[in-house]
Amino acid sequence: MANSKKLTLFGLIGITMAFFGTVRSVPTLAITGWTQIFYMLVAAVLFALPIALMSAELSTGFQEEGGPQVWVKKAIGEKWGFVTSWLLWVQMFFGMVMVASTVGVLFGYVINVPHLSSNNFFIFAVILISYWGVTLLNLKFDMVKIAGNWGSIIGVYIPFVVLVVLGLAYMFKNGINPAGHLANFKAGDLLPNLSDLGSLAYLSGIIFIFAGVEISSVHANNIENPKRNYPIAVISSVILLVIFNLIAGLTVANGVPMGKMELSNITQPYMIFSADLGIPSIFVNIISAMILIGVLVQLSAWVLGPSKSMIKVAEDGNLPPFFQKRNSKGIPITFVMLQAIVISLVSVMYIVVPDVNSAFLVITITTTILYCIVYALIAISAVRLRYKEPNMNRPFRLGKGNGMMWFVSLLSLLSVLITIVVSLIPPSILPKSFSTGYVIYQVVATVVMVGVALIIYKFKKPSWKKSD
Length: 468
Hints:
Blueprint: H1 9-20, H2 26-30, H3 36-61, H4 68-76, H5 78-110, H6 120-140, H7 143-147, H8 150-174, H9 201-207, H10 226-255, H11 267-277, H12 282-318, H13 333-346, H14 349-352, H15 356-388, H16 403-423, H17 435-458
Helix pairs in contact: 1-10, 3-10, 3-15, 3-16, 4-5, 4-15, 5-6, 5-12, 5-13, 5-15, 5-17, 6-12, 6-13, 8-10, 8-11, 8-12, 9-15, 9-16, 11-12, 12-13, 15-16, 15-17
InterPro entries: AA/rel_permease1, APC_superfamily
GO molecular function, one term: transmembrane transporter activity
Keywords: Cell membrane, Membrane, Transmembrane, Transmembrane helix, Transport
């Protein structure tokens, strides 16, 4: 009977892919042309796989609820455990602004006024309306339960499959588009152009596709024979994600003319492919509405998820009683309202930064940097716990001795360091006048987010701990 509840190998592959199946990141991949193959392999091999494998060992060895903050707390102390949980919460301020920005773009196409997709003030207004809307709905209703899995099917899986099919049909019909990002192929196009360092910033945006890869490790204990099946599931999932994303990315790169890619506008390739293949324009309105549903469901899931984790951290005494308030439905009201306010402030970026494309990329990169700090702490903790808790039962273990763990951890730290360095290079799509401002913004945003957590921890009081 016990085994009847176990996940199969294929079940875990499906769940892992579900975490990362999204059409939103395809334009960021496509704008790099042929170089996306190199970037995607770097993101998968140096970033996603090491973190997923370390997280698998940690989650099977330390099974209490809490994930990364529990691992880091046990390895290097409560302070850094708190910083980890804090960063996993605050990164969503930037991540959700990026996700919500696509609502405005999609809505413009749903109502047949596509020029709104490049209007900064319209995007800003829609971010505020959509995020506050799903926040207030979540205070009244369990929107994730209401939306269920159909939101992902309608808004993510069907649009992704349709995009791949249309892209391949376009390529079979037209071959390589001479005006697209794949034209005039040279072997050197497969590697980054080091004479244009600003183009390296796209690597950070592509790495963001795999951000959150540690989440699938929570299922490591539920799979049959985790020692054998978990690494197979993770490696298979990453390979399949690389293949599907590259097919989508290369076909979109082929269809969208050079210099015309709109990073926050996933509707653009559907429009190009449909017009070329003779598909009625109403199809674009329908697919935009479907993706819009998926984005709103994703926003709903993020409204409460991180807040529920943070209130446990608060009740452990890491934050004042003000943060520990719940409403009559048990929802952590302070966190939910605070994150809505901060997300509203971060969305001002869409008014400050010259165009929607640039703002979208800048905010994606900020989110990636914050994730990278968490992954550095996980990598350090994974090695530390090998020596601190040598006798811990680890159903999934990286290698017999400690050598493999050291190798994977150092590989992960190297990839995190490279990602952060690359993220601080001003992207080539930004105006030169904004380059210095970009670097200052990324440094200040990161220092403030980490610094606030350290200051709160330094001044925490025993009276903050919630009595049972």
